[in-house]
Design a protein that fits this description.
This protein is of the alpha+beta class and 197 residues long. The longest helix is centred in the first third of the chain and has 16 residues. Strands 1, 2, 3, 4, 5 and 6 form a 6-stranded mixed β-sheet that branches. A hairpin with a 2-residue loop joins β4 and β5. Helix content is 33%, strand content 21%. The protein is globular and about 50 Å long. The two termini are 12 Å apart.
Length: 197
């Protein structure tokens, strides 16, 4: 099945969650070098936009995701703009720095990561959501992970995603929870009987 991404970190993370049950192909592996638009104003809209783009052009079952960090004190920002919060360059360091500056002096540091997966199988569309709640740290903690991982501490844990490591993150993350719902759906629904999780 095609995973509509060329983000190596995402591909590795989702492949690790799925295990050997489904062989994923990235955009690179199907020869797609297009700059797929992500211009919707919701995570759901962006995920569907990416999945539809590939399904319409390649005619193959696929899924796409979009993820946002939603901070309570910032009325849900950066949200759908998380990857380009500090500008169009998808610069994780700049994004984290901007977020820390925006939260400077604020007591409420509650936040959540939310992932939405859009799946298209035989032309039918399905959405799956995963959420993990936590808090934004006052400074970076650890070098692992990607995106905002060094400044996000999930509920029930003493360290950031960056320090927890991939084994724990792949069990509890927003993306893991959305992929788990995707996997359960593929295993249980007849249109997807060729996919076994």
């Amino acid at each position: 099945m095609i995973f509509v991404t060329n983000n190596r970190h995402k591909l590795e993370e989702v492949s690790a969650i799925l295990g050997d049950s489904i062989e994923l192909k990235s955009l690179k592996e199907i020869g797609c070098t297009d700059d797929i638009p992500e211009t919707a104003d919701t995570l759901e809209g962006n995920a569907l936009m990416k999945a539809r783009y590939i399904y319409e052009r390649y005619g193959q079952d696929c899924f796409a995701d979009d993820t946002g960090l939603e901070v309570d004190a910032l009325d849900g920002a950066p949200g759908v703009y998380s990857a380009r919060y500090a500008g169009p360059g998808h610069d994780s360091e700049a994004n984290m720095q901007k977020l820390l500056e925006e939260l400077d002096g604020k007591n409420d540091r509650h936040a959540q990561f939310r992932t939405v997966i859009a799946l298209i199988i035989k032309g039918e569309e399905f959405l799956f959501e995963g959420v993990v709640k936590g808090t934004i740290l006052e400074e970076r903690e650890g070098e692992g992970g990607f995106g905002y991982d060094p400044i996000f501490r999930p509920e029930g844990y003493d360290h950031s995603f960056a320090l927890l490591g991939n084994d724990i993150k792949n069990r509890i993350s927003h993306r893991a929870r959305a992929v788990e719902k995707l996997c359960k759906f593929l295993a249980e629904h007849s249109p997807c009987s060729s996919y076994k999780c």
